[in-house]
């Protein structure tokens, strides 16, 4: 909703948890932005069209479910969700002729699936700016390492979103921030723009 109110004409929202999907659908209808928003009811994973169970991460936080294990299909259970790979978004991207994008990702220590399954998307469109939750996934070394390799191989620089200073310490466990901005080389000015926008809210 923030993206559409800021003037974005193409917003792709990926959400797996049914109560959240219903809230987003209702918000889209209320704000009359059906033409701007594509809502994809899936969980980002390393395989498409399998089913996963969710488990609560933070008690009484509707947005904090974590992916758990592969299970059998059960459409009536909101804690069983269908999956997709990030590259599965390519048909929507092509249909809408999206040439560049920014990404916000917060999926409770599953952010590495964006990197593992999104090579084609990142190769085909310009994505200068990725906002990613970092505090939890940096504790899972194998996942954090894969994220770091993915972005560094594509000339992204990690920035602290509170200071807009690049993280120069090679040990990401020392990055004392809840979130991280991955910003492509030569696009560092986007950090200050985002900081100004947040402060104006």
Report on the architecture of this protein.
The protein has 201 residues and is an alpha/beta fold. It has two domains: 1-84, no CATH class; 101-201, D-Maltodextrin-Binding Protein, domain 2 (3-Layer(aba) Sandwich). It has helices spanning 2-5, 18-31, 90-95, 112-117, 119-124, 141-152, 189-199, and strands at residues 11-14, 37-40, 43-44, 51-56, 65-71, 80-84, 100-105, 126-133, 156-159, 179-184. The strands form three sheets. The chain has a four-stranded mixed β-sheet with strand order 3-6-4-5, with no helix packed on it. It has a four-stranded mixed β-sheet with strand order 7-8-10-9. The longest helix has 14 residues, at 18-31. This is Methyltransferase FkbM domain-containing protein. InterPro entries: FkbM_mtfrase (IPR006342), SAM-dependent_MTase (IPR052514), SAM-dependent_MTases_sf (IPR029063).
Major sheet details: 4 strands, mixed
Query: What's the Cα radius of gyration?
Result: 17 Å
Helix count equals 7
Distance between the first and last residues' Cα:
14 Å
Range of strand content: 25-35%
Output the CATH topology of the largest domain: D-Maltodextrin-Binding Protein, domain 2
Which class best fits the helix and strand makeup?
Answer: alpha/beta
Number of strands: 10
């Amino acid at each position: 909703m923030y993206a559409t109110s800021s003037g974005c004409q193409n917003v792709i929202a990926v959400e797996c948890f049914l109560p959240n999907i219903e809230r987003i659908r209702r918000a889209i209808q209320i704000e009359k932005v059906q033409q701007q928003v594509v809502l994809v009811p899936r969980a980002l994973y390393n395989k498409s069209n399998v089913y996963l169970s969710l488990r609560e991460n933070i008690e009484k936080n509707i947005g904090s479910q974590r992916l758990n294990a592969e299970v059998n299909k059960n459409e009536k259970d909101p804690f069983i969700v269908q999956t997709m790979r990030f590259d599965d978004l390519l048909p929507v991207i092509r249909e809408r002729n999206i040439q560049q994008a920014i990404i916000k990702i917060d999926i409770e220590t599953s952010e590495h699936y964006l990197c593992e399954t999104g090579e084609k998307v990142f190769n085909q469109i310009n994505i200068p700016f990725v906002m990613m939750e970092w505090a939890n996934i940096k504790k899972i070394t194998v996942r954090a390492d894969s994220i770091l390799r993915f972005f560094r191989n594509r000339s992204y620089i990690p920035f602290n979103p509170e200071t807009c200073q690049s993280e120069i310490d090679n040990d990401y466990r020392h990055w004392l921030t809840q979130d991280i901005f991955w910003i492509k080389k030569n696009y560092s000015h986007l950090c200050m723009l985002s900081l100004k926008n947040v402060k104006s809210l």
